[in-house]
Design brief:
There is one protein chain. This protein has 222 residues and is α/β, with parallel strands linked by helices. The protein has two domains: 135 residues, Response regulator (Rossmann fold); 75 residues, Arc Repressor Mutant, subunit A (Orthogonal Bundle), CATH 1.10.10.10. The protein has eleven helices and six strands. A six-stranded parallel β-sheet has the order 2-1-3-4-5-6, sandwiched between helices. α3 runs parallel beside α4. The longest helix is centred in the last third of the chain and has 15 residues. It is globular and about 50 Å long.
Amino acid sequence: MTDRIRVLIVDDHTIVRKGIRALLMMEPDIEVVGEAHNGAKAVAAAAQLHPSIILMDVVLPDMDGIKAMSLILGNQPEVRILILTSCATDDKIFPAIRTGALGYLLKDSSPEDLIRAIREVHRGESSLHPTIARKVLREMSVPANEPLRPMPVSEREMEVLQLIARGLSDHGIAKHLVISKATVRTHVSSILSKLHLTSRTQAALYALREGFVSLDSINGAE
């Protein structure tokens, strides 16, 4: 299979890494290309192995996951980060999302949820544990002291934003709107710039906060 999802597992507990590896090895479209037990090793492994997805714990020795993620994305912006951690505190969640994590799962998630999240993040979609999603939405409902004024998005960009919030990938949006994936990417870039956001996850949460989509419509989306 030529288009396998190349996964790097970053966790300081050997038993966790081996357990995840054993789980992912059962999936024909997923390949575990390496492991790292701290942030510094993760940065080096990412540069050497060129994974498509990094499963990253935020609490790591020597260099925490958020710092490692920042360094990795600075050099390899195409890499997609899925946080997998037992830590659900605000001082980890929000910096991770601001730094560019597309997904944030807790270790009490089911194996099926983890595999689904890996595939979602690989497609460029956001994937948040329900506990994390509630925290982020609650935080985003509190106005900042000096918020940046977002520029208005076009009618087409609003359609794209709503579809991002529903979890569609670039391919799915292109198919739905009957436009090219290149055009979708242009719209997404413009949306992020106009709304002063840094990731599709933030865009999806923004759309929810502003009422452009509802949780019911997202839960009911295919």
